[in-house]
Amino acid sequence: MLIWFDRVPLGDELAKMIAFVLLAGFAIAALTGAIALPILRRLQLRQHAYEDAPATHQVKTGTPTMGGICFVTPMLVLLTAPQAPFVLQLFFIIVACAAIGFADDLLGIRRGKNQGLRARTKYLLTALVAILFLNAISSSYGMFPRDVVFRTAAYSLAVPHWLWLVLGILAVTGTIHAVNLTDGLDGLATGTIIPPLCAFAVLGFWQVIPAAAQVSLLGIGACLAFLLLFNRYPAKMFMGDTGSLALGAMLASLAILTGEMLLLVIVGGVFVVEAVSVILQVAYFKRTGGKRIFRMSPLHHHFELEGWPETMVTSRFWIASLILSAIGMAIAL
Fold first, then answer.
1. Which residue from 47, 57, 94, 280 could staple onto 65, CB 3.0 to 4.6 Å apart?
2. Model pTM?
3. What are the pLDDT digits (tens) for 217-263?
4. Biggest alpha carbon–alpha carbon distance for the chain
5. What is the DSSP track for 270-285?
6. Pairing between β-strand 148-151 and β-strand 156-158 as defined by DSSP bridges
7. Is 158 strand, coil or helix?
8. Euclidean distance between CA atoms 129 and 139, whole angstroms
């Protein structure tokens, strides 16, 4: 049974609650991965390396994918407290986006190349999920900082409701796309998202939004299990779009619930930079008739082609994410 609270726990109570939820997320994800890995191998649900990726990535072809199911099953714990505020809404957005990613992965595998759903289709589907999520939580005015896009201990920035809805849709679709782009090296997206989830766990406790705090902790536990057991270099299993879309939806929905959509740009800064590197590269390439800013985008591929070992790129992106998340918490608290 998930430990639910309507106040900020203190002392031993807080430590026990955090340990319980973290361990629940870790254990369920670890068990899911242990069961899923041989099944994915048997069903030949394997990754096809992106054709334009660095040549060293071709050895990754054949690695089982769709491991993102490990981020979904821990969320079933939320259903032990279905009447708690925002539990079903968070469960919905994470699972729905994971389902979109699953369809994308499956289509890519059947086609025999790393091309599943069209980008436009993914944007429209995730935008629809975002609209449904925002509509579902909008009626809970006063239970979370609705219409607030940035807040600190002494300051709160609110916008008109229609603008909050637009920014919410952009936060969900943009974060999902950015996390998806970052999922290009063993352990990169998994390790990079842990510090932002830690930040939102702290903010969830600070603002007494139980769902935000506990979904963050479940996500941290699941990511640690997936990273340590299955996704660290050399990866035994990839998360696929099943995982990257679920994690992106999780991060964005937590930012919305805590009233920190603008802070997400800082704590999720690594994902922002990865997405911006692609936008700049494409725009510059078209404008100059073929010239490039980076050797390859997203940015992690640029560093690979500069000669950095994959593990070095990954670890430095983790460190950058940790620093940015710490800065974000320092601003908000």
1. 47
2. 0.94
3. 999 999 999 999 999 999 999 999 999 999 999 999 999 999 999 99
4. 62
5. HHHHHHHHHHHHHHHH
6. antiparallel
7. strand
8. 17
